[in-house]
Amino acid sequence: MRPRVIPCLLLKNDGLVKTVEFKNPIYLGDPINAVKIFNDKEVDELIFLDITATIEQRKPRIELISKITDECFMPLAYGGGVRNVKDIRKILSLGVEKVSINTYAVENPAFITAAADLFGRQSIIVSIDVKRNLWGKYKVFTHSGRKNTGLDPVGFAIAMEARGAGELFLNSIDQDGRMQGYDIELITRVSKAVNIPVVACGGAGSVAHLAEATQRGGASAVAAGSLFVFQGRHRAVLINYPTQKELRVVFEE
Fold first, then answer.
1. Strand ranges (DSSP E) for the chain?
2. What is the full DSSP assignment across 187-213?
């Protein structure tokens, strides 16, 4: 069975956006329309990340999540602003299968254990945003890439697995939106250190890049944003997804 290939869609206010290195969000359109198109393209799974919820210190937009789940015919994950079990319970009750936790996993690691105990490991993703510092060392960032925690991503990944995370969403800030390929070194380090699935994100510009992240990096699944929302060198907005045949070929099934 080939690895999952997951469009990663960024929410800002009620719209869909795309960033480069977590900066300068470009408006893409209505998230509901994107979901309808991905439904037709038989996408494996979707993940929506609300990129301003933590910065604005607000709760998840339940009404918007509900509209998305009403239209979504595939497995769905959501992240952004989740800080208590009440939020998780509500989000899961709408039909979302997995909840992704980023900043609060750093601030309160015990929350991951509590959430996994209540809802099952399979429902809890820890999202890890990583950037190299001035000395080339990988560090975990929170608050949509604005705050350097000083944490090493490998050690943090191991700790989150021990806390009960069922999956890790590993995102390279340096590669985000550049479409030049994943950070294979980062993916390899984290994937080798844990026994739970690692979803690699950040940098995909072709279907060949997807295969590199799994075959060379050891990722269990791959996610991408720009690859699935832009077309051509001028980055015209066009929601797209490889055919099942194209994916079988690239993953050499």
1. 4-12, 15-20, 23-29, 46-50, 76-79, 98-101, 124-132, 138-142, 147-148, 167-172, 198-201, 221-224, 230-231, 236-237
2. HHHHHHH-SS-EEEES---SHHHHHHH
Type of residue at 128 = I
How far apart CA 174 and CA 36 sit, in angstroms, is: 30
Q: Assign 1 a pLDDT band (cuts: 50, 70, 90).
A: confident
Per the rule left: phi > 0, alpha: psi between -120 and 50, beta: everything else, 231 is beta
Q: Burial code of 184-212, b = ≥16 C-beta within 10 A, e = fewer?
A: bebbbbbbebbebbbbbbbbbbebebbbb
> What is the tens place of the pLDDT at every residue in 160-197?
999 999 999 999 999 999 999 999 999 999 999 999 99
Q: How many CB atoms lie within 10 A of CB 169?
A: 27
Those residues with Cβ within 8 angstroms of residue 117's Cβ, 6 or more apart along the chain or in another chain: 164
Q: Given the structure tokens 């340096």, which residue do they identify?
A: 174
Q: How far apart are CA 102 and CA 105, in angstroms?
A: 5
Question: Tens digit of pLDDT for each residue in 58-101?
Answer: 999 999 999 999 999 999 999 999 999 999 999 999 999 999 99
Report how far residue 214's alpha carbon sits from residue 230's, in angstroms, rounded to the nearest whole number: 23
pTM: 0.97
Domains and CATH numbers, the chain: 4-250 (3.20.20.70)
Catalytic residues: 129
